[in-house]
Design a protein that fits this description.
By secondary structure, this protein is α+β, with helices and mostly antiparallel strands. The protein starts with 10 loop residues before the first helix and ends with a helix.
Length: 221
Amino acid sequence: MNTMQFTSTRRQWLSAAALALAAVQMPLAWAAPETPDAFIARITTKTLNTIKADRTLRSGDTNRIMQLVDSELMQYVNFRRMTALAVGPAWRKATEPQRTQLQDAFKLLLVRTYAGALSQLGEQTVVVKPVRPGQQDSNLVVQTEVRGKGDPIQMDYRLEKSADAASGWLVFDMNVLGVWLVENYRTQFSSVINANGIDALIANLNEQNKRNAGNVSAAAK
């Protein structure tokens, strides 16, 4: 079976997106819902500090990152919506088992793709820009800038308001250097779906995950 190598656009995109992937993680209790910019400011700053303090995260340890994603990240990300948007119109025709397989495989692809990029994060700081007025709560963008060595990196978060989330917000897309994660993968996924259907995309994702796992194992030796 021919498989497609799912790739991102730039090396810098990977490094910044690794931060974005890990950036929505610390469960805290507070009296009132946060504003979206305060939510992003808190979690990105906390995440940078966590990465700096955890050598296994900085080394790109996939198991450690998966543990972080499962125990902390997923409650602040609407990953089902993210996967549905990446898959596109074919999501509506997919069965529930197919949707579950797509979501699990896509999550693993993202984690393993960006695991190595965590080691590139160092003394960055995150500057959160004021939220543009007039946005809908179901599709609200918070713009940030990651500053450190080299040029600043644009990194934006697309949020939805959610009564089920402790913070009041869920992330469902990220934009790094002008490239939205969902749009980037939708283009690649659609070519596979149009040629061979949903099951082919699931098979391609699983095959890519196997290759990524092999690359991680080889690098560890």
